[in-house]
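@channel anyone free to eyeball this complex?
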Amino acid sequence: MSALFRFDVLARAGRARRGRLQLPHGDVETPAFMPVGTRAAVKGVTSEMLVDLGAEIVLANTYHLHLRPGDDLIARLGGLHTFMGWSRPMLTDSGGYQVFSLASRRTLSEDGVVFQSHLDGRSYKLTPESAVDIQSRLGADITMTLDECPSWPATERDVDAAVSRTLRWARRARTRFDALRSGGVTDVARPTPGQVQFGIVQGGTYPHLREASAAGTVGIGFDGYAIGGLSVGEPIDAMLETAAKTAALLPADQPRYLMGVGTPSDLIQAVARGIDLFDCVLPTRNARNGQLFTRHGPLNIRNARYAEDPRPIDAECGCPTCRHYSRAYLRHLAMAGEIGSSTLNTVHNLFFYLDTMGSIRKAIEFGTVEDLERTFLEAYSRRQPTSDD
Amino acid sequence: MSALFRFDVLARAGRARRGRLQLPHGDVETPAFMPVGTRAAVKGVTSEMLVDLGAEIVLANTYHLHLRPGDDLIARLGGLHTFMGWSRPMLTDSGGYQVFSLASRRTLSEDGVVFQSHLDGRSYKLTPESAVDIQSRLGADITMTLDECPSWPATERDVDAAVSRTLRWARRARTRFDALRSGGVTDVARPTPGQVQFGIVQGGTYPHLREASAAGTVGIGFDGYAIGGLSVGEPIDAMLETAAKTAALLPADQPRYLMGVGTPSDLIQAVARGIDLFDCVLPTRNARNGQLFTRHGPLNIRNARYAEDPRPIDAECGCPTCRHYSRAYLRHLAMAGEIGSSTLNTVHNLFFYLDTMGSIRKAIEFGTVEDLERTFLEAYSRRQPTSDD
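replying in thread with the prediction:
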């Protein structure tokens, strides 16, 4: 573990942890939500707006950036932070999830995966080693190992095979990562000082496979651990139960990241089950479709009932959108297809997510996280399609 | 003229004027450029970003807002300023230009113009009186009279007829405006206190028709005067010559607004010919297409030569985009179709326009506007498609 990396659990409430992640580009207060900046940009907002919103860490997608504009180009321009004008911590994924969900004509082998770009059909190969190299060139604070993520539903046999392969790939990824850090590789730039690597636990919703995957991954030894293969279609209860059981198998003094999760109620429930880090496209993607999150549940601003509504999205919200604009104006922008609709809606949704994480952190400090979970879920399910919202 | 309205010429340099326009929602230093917020939003930026960019006045389009969401709705929500979260001065056009350029199945008569919405085919009627009423409900600081704008090229006979009709409509518009202000109309809300009305001079590029139109319009008496019917396809020299001759026919102590103009070099040349106010979609529309304005001429950020260019758009520019992002990153965003491309490019282009107007104002104060015009035009034409930019 690098001297620039450190994770401290500052407080606990039940299984919930209030922590601080120290990374080369700054501190991240956990539990934390990471806005998704797929192509080195969080859609709808600028990097300065993200700073104003209080985002402490952003995720970018290795698959997308490898294809365009290319990690070589980004490295020559000084790395991802410089490239996108973001000086705070970043995490890059391994690219595996997008290869499995976006790329066409995919051929999986023990060596890695050969796929065609969804942009232009060009052929690429991603291996556990090349995923490390690409992320080294991108220069994020936290990098992820290449994993095999089975689709949902999958047979136990398939999940078992994916767990085994993910473990073998994790070993190769760690070896490559160590080699890069020690200067033992000459054709790839050495990673950002302090760059760390998280391993990924797979195993679907099969407890014994999660156990095997967690034991093997922890055995290799990473700077932190992600729980992958969830939020891919399984029921929410199964997701939460698996997250809880898997979190309990991970080292108490290291960060735990639940990949691709989730709704506001998912977040608070997962925190109560021991999760520290999250990423999800929901707040940004849904903003562009007009879905706005509030403490009383989501609303769709395109609904005709908001046409003359002079109120802000959420009267209790302190975000710039709620401070300056009415639901009527936001509906007008959405109906007219104005770019500003995406921007103002994204600002609100990200503020809501980040603000909710702040409330969760406070509740853990005060030991009231179970109260928060109950009252939050109660309020969040209150909005009815026919109510006066 | 309202007590809340005042125009002072603070300095002159040749025919150029350095003025201050006092309006109900604040002061506008002239010569000024008005960003265009067609549908109550300047595409790509929020109202707060416009304030940060130093925009002192914004234009919105009566035609678009009348169709959607409707001026009645905007009035019930407190008017355009409240609706769009913009507390500084605004100008609304009369809707005429869009009726002539966008609407389908247009029937023009002495009474007004019947047209079908380009959105849903619904039929609408716009008259000199209803254009006043709609703008009264929208509540901008400056309103415009309905004019007939002939397309280019047009015969002298057609332009002559348009000038005559525009004058008759201007008289009706002024009568209606006065009736609203005096409380003599009960079915329309009284206008925003201090709301003023500008008349529009037509006449194409025919000097004697411009003279007749100016004399007639000034004879009716408005709070300011616009030069319409230019920048519709005529050569730039004809535009500048007509603007210069028409400006000379207008009262020396009242503001002069050249509608729909123009490029940065158009602006400086028109100021030198006595113009005080401008609006144009160029900085915002071209930003979305990747054309960025610089003091060395425009560049298109999509060009492959910028793929690895670490420099800002313009090294001398102080805008947030140039302070934080490279040409390489902006090209990446443009090629990837990211929303952020529109936002960051629009911020730069608007900053460039507003900053250029600031330099022009300073040059008038220092009496060096002719030097600025020469050096600006020289530098602006310097960029060659093959040069190292």
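from a first look: Residues 339-365 of chain A form the longest helix (27 residues).
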